[in-house]
Amino acid sequence: MKRWLLAVIVCSLVAAGCGRYKELPETIESGKTSDEVTEDSSESTQAETVGTSVLPQKKPVKVKGIYISGYMAGSEGFQAILDKVKGTEINAVVIDVKNDDGRITFAMDDAPTVKEIGAEKKYIRDMPAMMAQLKERGIYTIARVVAFRDPYLAEQKPEWSLKNKDGSLHRDNQGLAWVNPYCPEVWDYLVEVGEAASEAGFDEVQFDYIRFSTDSSMKQVAFDENETKGRSKTDIITEFIQYAYEKLSARNITVSADVFGTIIGSNVDAQAVGQVYSDMADHLDYICPMIYPSHYGDGNFGIDHPDTKPYDTIRAALNLSKSDLEKTRKDGASQAIVRPWLQDFTASYLKHHISYGKKEVRDQIKAVYDAGYDEWILWSASNRYTWDALLSEEEAKEEAEKIARLRATEEEESKAAAEAKAEAEAKTAVETKAAAETKPVPYKVESQAEKSLEGSVAAEETAAQESQAGEESQKSKKRSKPPVVIVTTGGSRNEK
């Protein structure tokens, strides 16, 4: 009897240990909850049961990363990059899974549409071995999936692609075809690729080119009302993000997206590409604005030539990001963590540019921290990085501790200032009320004419003052230069 009872107790304990674990609380900076993130050394606490599959839990990582093309990842040069990364603050890599040509960079056996159209171009010949090496080094892996700029899919599936008014396949000024963001089959294809990337071992799926082409040829495109159903470009891009996020997040896949930096605070740019910053941030784990200084036109943020002022440009762009997201944040709703792309290339195609090296890269990183953010990724299309701009692991740890202390001090000072202000306002209100209650009210009999005259004089004086102030305001406006927002989409191959 005792043995039977002991067996029942043991079985009960085992069953209790196999129940679903709750997701880890998000970090404060995500805007999702103020709970602290706790980590458990036991692998079982990092799993989520979905059906019969056990999926890894999402674990927040403060990414400091670099981009690696699919071609580079499959070449001997990849090993040289990993050797450079070793011992530095870099803890993540963004690797092409679906590149700018629409080709899949490694074998995807469980992706039926990929197989159907022959999209694989196996730059990475042994993905399991590459992934094992990255995991062994403790590197966080992000799969870059180029979305709607997909000339390969467009050629293979013209019915899923943008068409001109004469019915021909639309091509941009570079001769590349784009798939149609309004086409649901395209959405499912992108989710298919994202799921396959996760199965291959990637920690995160990052969508790029989730937008419309911006060149002048778009005037030739005919959109079918049966497909658009009255939805604007921004409507459909946000809908896609929501759809992809729900599908991938249900499998515990972390999802991020790259967006133009110039859409932040610019409705003109947002409508042109179809990206509304705050709306997209509502349906992502991470949002990655491409705020390369070279992408901003002269005069933006009051800077004559933004490319020549990397710190000022990045700081201004991220201050605008913070303001935009704070204004639109909904109580109790999640909002993506901001993880910007930074420039590690020289924009020699610009008339006013500077060479980017150690100082320029480090200035951008400092601007990220000074703006209150913690994560960043460096972009170099050629994968040639300024390695001496990076800190060692120990230096980065010391820097992080210093930043944390500084932020804590600033927070305390800000809190104290707010409390002092509130106390002063409360004291002033009490004194004003007391003075009003004790001040004697003089008794005076005035004729209606005297009252009206006094009122008229006061009104005339007020009107004159307002008129003068208005004239001064108009003169001031004429003297000031209005901000200019320009979307830069052309230029060197160094640009995304």
UniProtKB/TrEMBL annotation:
<dbReference type="InterPro" id="IPR052177">
    <property type="entry name" value="Divisome_Glycosyl_Hydrolase"/>
</dbReference>
<feature type="compositionally biased region" description="Basic and acidic residues">
    <location>
        <begin position="407"/>
        <end position="436"/>
    </location>
</feature>
<dbReference type="InterPro" id="IPR025275">
    <property type="entry name" value="DUF4015"/>
</dbReference>
<dbReference type="InterPro" id="IPR017853">
    <property type="entry name" value="GH"/>
</dbReference>
<keyword id="KW-0378">Hydrolase</keyword>
<dbReference type="GO" id="GO:0016787">
    <property type="term" value="F:hydrolase activity"/>
</dbReference>
<protein>
    <submittedName>
        <fullName>Glycoside hydrolase</fullName>
    </submittedName>
</protein>
<feature type="compositionally biased region" description="Low complexity">
    <location>
        <begin position="458"/>
        <end position="471"/>
    </location>
</feature>
<feature type="region of interest" description="Disordered">
    <location>
        <begin position="407"/>
        <end position="496"/>
    </location>
</feature>
<feature type="region of interest" description="Disordered">
    <location>
        <begin position="29"/>
        <end position="51"/>
    </location>
</feature>
<feature type="domain" description="DUF4015">
    <location>
        <begin position="65"/>
        <end position="385"/>
    </location>
</feature>
<dbReference type="Pfam" id="PF13200">
    <property type="entry name" value="DUF4015"/>
</dbReference>
